[in-house]
Amino acid sequence: MQHFRSLVRHRADIAELYYRTNQKEKVLPELLKYPELESLIPADTPFLICELVRTATRNIWINALIQYGPEDKSHLPTYRKLLDWSKSWKVHLPCEAGFYLVYPPEIKGKIAAFFYAPYLNTARYRGFFDAVKRIPALEKLEQAEIISGDGMYAKAAKRQRLGMIMGQIALALKVYKIEHFFYNMKKTIIIALISLLTTTTIVAQNNDTTIIDRNINIEKEYIPEINDAHLEVIAAQRKRLGTKRGFIAVKPNCSIQSYVPALTPLLKYEPTEIVATTYQAISGAGKTFNEWPEMIDNVIPYIGGEEEKSEQEPLRVWGTVENGAIVKAEAPLITTQCIRVPVTNGHTAAVFVKFENKPTKEEILEAWANFKGLPQELELPHAPAQFITYFEEDNRPQAALDRDIYGGMGVTIGRLREDSFFDYKFVGLSHNTLRGAAGGAVLIAELLYRQGYFD
């Protein structure tokens, strides 16, 4: 085993030498010798030893392929072929990682039973998800008693399983990168891990999911007080992703929660046109003033991708469920501008709205005061007692004074008045890192629990 591993390591070192001496045209031919090397394993090698050798050397090979393999499109057919080959690797219990693991001493040294776990059929998925979702069914593997608990064997098994999975993901990402010229590593790692979690785990999350939406059609835009009926798509999502227990529930963009809650109880008056300008805190970019000194005493009139989301996501929030999918509302027409301002937390929105059936100011205030959703009815732990709070003062709401209302989970409104061009205008405020992010995800999880989605 050590001799064969040294041979593969030697080939990987040669490929690295070619890479670092700018002889990159020789890298891939060198690495392509690996499949041939596997045939050198003697036919009379005990099966267990053979599997251990293959797994150890495949790890060396795939790591070198990912690090040093060239990334021009002419090599795409080769990488796809190698990726398909990696998907044919068998999975063994109890280690879940592609090779055997000896049972603990109390099992008297017997090795685990072997079975072949078919890869999931995922022809419908695109990009690197076409590879990621071919990972064997983790739910079955996790039922193996040998890997339960926190013992040495359990930990070793889980590490090896993740090693194989992440190797396949990394190779799939390399293919994706070559096909699309670029990928954002932070987002793709998040997405890859989420795709694994869907096998057995329930995920309520608030990351930017543009790539997730495009590749596996995750239905998003859950605001528990507004569209709890959208939870109906979970059954369809499970069927589509091939999961029995796991699913992903995604909350919408943080900025729209400063005005969508205020507009929701007014939908009965049929708003036709909405203009919203959001003034967004620096924490929405994951920054502090220490990390982003350019924001001190400054305003930046652009936030990449934010305006498109702010115009389209409300229509999904207000959409309907048809055939297991969310169909966007056709109206109102929404246009937005999104501006970064020097505030730590709290997104503010200046909103103008025109109605088909114009309500009175008193009717609007009454609708806001009485508006509540299922979280309030169920008295969920993180549900604000009053979802929308209106301030009569002309200088409210203010981020510093009002963002933490009801633990940062409430929405505050002020300055409602008639407009000379639109029917009405007002100002809204929500806490972007509580209601708009982690707190919103927790509230979704609480609602899912009360609705019976957790066992």
Describe the structure in your own words.
The protein is of the alpha/beta class. It folds into 3 domains: 1-70; 90-181, no CATH class; 255-430, Dihydrodipicolinate Reductase, domain 2. It has 19 helices and 10 strands. It has helices spanning 2-20, 27-31, 34-38, 47-68, 76-87, 129-132, 138-141, 152-180, 185-197, 210-216, 224-227, 233-241, 260-263, 306-317, 361-370, 374-378, 399-402, 405-408, 434-450, and strands at 202-205, 247-250, 271-280, 320-322, 325-327, 333-340, 347-355, 388-391, 411-418, 424-430. The strands form 3 sheets. A 6-stranded mixed beta sheet has the order 6-3-7-10-9-8. A hairpin with a 2-residue loop joins β4 and β5 (325-327). α4 (47-68) runs parallel beside α8. It starts with a helix and ends in a 5-residue tail after the last helix. 39% of the residues are buried. The model is unreliable at 91-154, 182-193, 196-202 and 209-217 (pLDDT under 50).
CATH class of the largest domain, named: Alpha Beta
CATH architectural type of the largest domain: 2-Layer Sandwich
Multimeric state of these chains?
A: single chain
**SSE succession:** HHHHHHHHHEHHHEHEHEEEEHHEHHEEH
Our Rg estimate from Cα atoms comes to 27 Å
Q: Which structural class matches the secondary elements?
A: alpha/beta
Q: How many β-strands, per DSSP?
A: 10
β-strand amount: 5-15%
CATH fold call of the largest domain: Dihydrodipicolinate Reductase, domain 2
So, the CATH homologous superfamily of the largest domain?
Dihydrodipicolinate Reductase, domain 2
The overall pLDDT, averaged over residues, is 76
Characterize the main sheet.
6 strands, mixed
Strand order of the largest sheet: 6-3-7-10-9-8
Helix content: 40-55%
Q: How many domain units?
A: 3
Tally of alpha and pi helices: 19
Distance between the termini: 45 Å
Q: Globular, elongated, flat, extended or rod-shaped: what is the shape?
A: elongated
Low-confidence stretches: 91-154, 182-193, 196-202, 209-217
